[in-house]
Design brief:
The structure holds 2 protein chains of 2 kinds. Chain A is of the alpha+beta class. Chain A has 10 helices and 20 strands.
Chain lengths: 358, 561
């Protein structure tokens, strides 16, 4: 299997710069996810790797060889499409065989390899069906089998699950991950769904505005976001303005709090706390602040309880708690007290992609 | 680390890949320039020349816009065009509403009959109505024996009658498709907000199908203005712009046809204004259509049900009457031009004995033109749909031109252009084939484009990703998927090609006579037997093509508009 290196990739559409110097090293056999909102450049990058459009500058190296000069049909990178792109005039077998016929593999080999692949994706019973007789999930399995059977150096997936319903999405997600590990194939996966990205990947690359914001394991990305954009896009987060008193004292939600020196030195910054870190109506186990507020909305989702609390003069905070009897009994309008541990607070410089300060 | 050498190679390759289609684009623009822009340019220029001195003048146009003879023709054209359009709407919209909203028995029969009426040559309508209600018509004679006099069919009302019955299928088929695609929730929401059934129809349903109705209406108007055979046969002394242009051209033989081309320009301007007006009206009315939650036709019972069925069937019966008359007449026994009573195959025998070359010509020209249209149309539609460049936009705009240029006008343009040196094509088969080709190319392109737009680009990308070169991907994936549209388009082109009259009438010679031309002259000579037999052959061929389209096209009847 192959390592993929993207070296200083630039791409513009007219005046709009879609990719602004992308540098990435993707380890051999890794499941690597490009995560970001629509328009961040993730699909543009994937399509440049596939060869559907040429980058303006930079190089794409797969397994030590540059593929930038190869046309799309010579690149040996398998692609799975968002809208499946299963050929509607060919049955399941012929769809999967398409790439092998193109490679001029012998008929006997084609039969054997396609049959084996269809078994792997559990479509062997449907080999003679036409695409319009298949569900969306089955069509995407055809798309996956078709891309894998040609033994590509890299597998590219462009939001392959976004057209499926929620339950099927989770099921196919597991299958994709299992197949990827079985084949040990380097996979580059594009999605805007952060839960999907966290659950399926070895490495997640968060992109925004044509720039890589952070690369790391899902746990690292979630626990240790390097800038404000990553902190807000991956998982949910509460952001709060930080005021300044005498060093090292700062002001958060109207409460005094000792700030790290770097944060205190920064003229304009925000603090962030994950909703699940907020203590509702309970004691703090270390330094931090306690603030009083009014419950505006409580939403029970089964596994947990989402509380929206209004703090007088300081806007809303989201908190997540386990749904205990006492918590579920809370009603809109009730007074609550929220506790924030100093150790759970993260600080970012001002701006949409403000750097992490502490 | 950028690699300039590698990158320029990649660029060079992607440019080279574009080149196949860029060549197609250039070729198409060149072809349309030669066959469309040049002839129409000649017509335009000649209209500003003085017939004697060959100098610039506005007097031709001045004459047309002041002289009662031409003003009368202009007024008449607008009357029959407007009348035909109105009649087409009055027949088409109610029929569409009935078949879309109620369970009408034999809906597909109604649609098929409407399509048959649509694809039959327009002058056959005029000719049949003359057979039925003309001076010596069957109905006229029968009424005379009752001691009554029948009002004459000749004149404006006859033309409007024929146009209404000929062009209403456009309005009907377009409106029906639109009505079927209206999300039921819109009408339910209106009802929920307190609309009565009638108010709902006028406030919600009609505005939502207005784009479709107006498209059909404008098409009827433009085709009515351009039609030559109908006013010529049933109009008698009622002159329209197309008959005047034709007569001017044939009488100006020898001198430059300055008056004929000025009238031609007037016809183009009227058609363009009509299309622009419709675009202007449609501009702010683009509705996002959700194809979910479609309305289900309601069953209709009792007197109401009878009324609905009677309305539907009488409209299509009236519209297909000319076809029945033609077929009936073709089997009547004749002796020369005289019907001798009883049935026989005399007319067919005469046709095969006397004008076999005419039949061969028609099919030869039409097949050739269809072949060209299919090849060029397939390639051009790919370029227009898949390349979003300025050149593709220009090509798309050029393809609109034949819709607004009447056949008589383009024929005059051809005669002006193709008379010199290597381009001397006057009197050849080539000029007729080229005319058929360029007049019908847009219809072929449109049929294929419609299918192509439904083929997602990702399908082709998937083929390329699996190792197919762009041309292989086109051949192995795109072409098979386009094929139903291509076949439907080819059939449509063939139908219109075999039935073409107005343009051929100025281009034919004794050696290149076609069936519609021969029918036209037979009707003028009173040889109704020959006319009927030839027309029946045309109808049979058209019917066969309709059958093929209905088999291959997913959108069925809607494929014809």
């Amino acid at each position: 299997m192959s390592q993929v290196c993207l070296i200083n990739i630039h791409k513009s559409y007219g005046r709009h710069a879609a990719l602004k110097g992308i540098n990435l090293d993707i380890g051999s056999g890794a499941f690597f996810t490009l995560l970001g909102p629509s328009g961040c450049g993730k699909t543009t990058l994937l399509r440049a790797i596939a060869g559907f459009h040429a980058q303006d500058a930079g190089d794409i190296v797969v397994g030590g060889e540059s593929i930038s000069s190869l046309s799309a049909n010579k690149r040996q990178v398998g692609m799975v499409f968002q809208d499946y792109a299963v050929f509607p005039h060919l049955n399941v077998f012929d769809n999967v065989a398409f790439g092998l016929v193109q490679q001029k593999v012998t008929a006997a080999d084609i039969r054997q390899r396609v049959t084996a692949m269809l078994q792997t994706v559990q479509l062997d019973q449907l080999a003679q069906r036409m695409p319009h007789q298949l569900s969306g999930g089955q069509q995407q399995r055809v798309g996956l089998a078709r891309a894998l059977v040609i033994r590509p150096k890299v597998l590219l997936m462009d939001e392959p699950l976004s057209n499926l319903d929620a339950k099927l999405r989770v099921e196919l997600r597991r299958d994709i991950r299992q197949l990827q590990q079985e084949f040990g194939i380097t996979t580059i996966y594009v999605t805007h769904d952060q839960e999907e990205a966290l659950s399926i990947s070895d490495q997640v690359c968060v992109m925004f505005d044509g720039v890589v914001q952070q690369v790391g394991s899902p746990w690292l990305i979630y626990k240790d976001p390097q800038n404000r954009f990553v902190a807000s896009f991956v998982g949910s987060n509460n952001f709060m303005q930080v005021g300044k008193l005498e060093q090292p004292q700062g002001l958060l939600l109207g409460q005094p709090l000792a700030l790290p020196p770097l944060v205190w030195a920064q003229p304009d910054c925000v603090a962030a706390v994950r909703p699940e870190k907020i203590v509702v109506n309970g004691p703090l186990s270390g330094p931090g602040i306690r603030v009083y507020g009014t419950l505006r909305q409580a939403m029970f989702t089964g596994r947990e309880l989402q509380l929206t609390v209004e703090l007088a003069g300081h806007g809303m905070l989201e908190a997540l708690t386990a749904p205990s009897e006492a918590m579920v009994a809370l009603k809109a309008g009730d007074d609550v007290v929220l506790g924030l541990h100093a150790s759970d607070l993260q600080y970012f410089a001002a701006g949409e992609t403000g750097a992490r300060l502490a | 680390m950028t690699v300039p050498g590698v990158m320029s190679l990649a660029h060079w390759r992607s440019k080279a890949r574009l080149d196949v289609w860029s060549l197609v684009m250039l070729g198409a623009i060149g072809l349309l320039g030669l066959l469309l822009v040049w002839p129409i340019g000649q017509v335009l220029v000649l209209g500003f020349l003085d017939a004697q001195t060959q100098t610039f003048t506005l007097s031709n146009y001045q004459k047309i816009l002041t002289h009662p003879y031409y003003l009368g023709a202009l007024k008449n054209s607008l009357i029959v065009g407007g009348g035909g359009m109105l009649g087409a709407c009055l027949l088409g919209v109610p029929l569409a509403y009935c078949t879309a909203r109620f369970v009408v028995r034999g809906r597909s029969v109604i649609a098929t009959l409407a399509v048959l009426a649509l694809v039959s040559p327009p002058f056959i309508g005029a000719y049949s109505w003359v057979m039925v209600a003309g001076n010596n018509g069957w109905l006229t004679q029968n009424i005379k024996t009752l001691g009554l006099t029948m009002p004459t069919i000749y004149g404006a009302h006859g033309i409007i009658l024929v146009f209404s019955l000929k062009f209403f299928p456009f309005v009907y088929l377009m409106t029906e498709t639109a009505l079927r695609n209206i999300n039921r929730a819109y009408e339910e929401a209106a009802e929920n907000l307190g609309c009565s059934a009638t108010a709902r129809f006028f406030k919600i349903t009609l505005p939502l199908v207005f784009p479709a109705v107006s498209s059909g209406a404008i098409l009827s108007f433009v085709l009515s203005i351009a039609d030559f055979g109908t006013p010529s046969i049933i109009g008698r002394d009622y002159r329209t712009l197309s008959t005047v242009a034709y007569n001017q051209y044939t009488s100006e033989m020898g001198g430059p046809p300055t008056m004929a081309v000025s009238i031609s320009m007037l016809m183009i301007v009227i058609a363009m204004l009509a299309v622009l007006l419709q675009r202007y009206l449609m501009g702010p009315r683009r509705y996002a259509g959700a194809l979910t939650n479609l309305s289900v036709p309601k069953p209709c019972h009792g007197a109401f049900g009878v009324a609905v069925h009677a309305l539907c069937y009488s409209i299509v019966a009236l519209a297909t009457m000319p076809i029945a008359v033609v077929i009936y007449t073709s089997f009547l026994e004749t002796n020369g031009p005289v019907f001798t009573g009883g049935f026989g195959l005399n007319s067919y025998a005469r046709v095969i004995r006397e004008v076999p070359d005419v039949i061969v010509n028609t099919f030869k020209f039409s097949l050739l033109a269809t072949l060209l249209i299919t090849l060029a149309g397939g390639l051009i539609s790919y370029v227009v749909v898949r390349r979003e460049t300025a050149a593709a936009g220009l090509l798309d705009a050029l393809l609109m031109v034949p819709y607004v240029v009447p056949g008589v006008v383009l024929a005059i343009g051809f005669l002006l252009c193709f008379q010199y040196g290597a381009f001397d094509l006057i009197g050849t088969s080539t000029i007729i084939v080229l005319m058929l080709f360029v007049r019908r190319l847009p219809y072929g392109v449109r049929a294929t484009s419609a299918v192509l737009r439904q083929i997602k680009p990702s399908i082709e990308e998937a083929a390329v990703n699996l190792g197919a070169s762009p041309l292989q991907a086109f051949a192995r994936v795109t072409v098979p998927l386009m094929l139903p549209g291509v076949i439907a388009g080819a059939m449509m082109s063939f139908i219109t090609a075999i039935n073409e009259l107005s343009a051929t009438l100025l281009l034919y010679t004794a050696r290149t006579t076609t069936m519609p031309v021969r029918i036209y002259s037979a009707v003028l000579d009173g040889e109704f037997g020959i006319a009927a037999a030839l027309a029946a052959l045309l109808l049979a061929s058209s019917g066969l093509c309709v059958f093929v389209v209905l088999r291959f096209s997913q959108s069925k009847e809607a494929a014809f508009v």
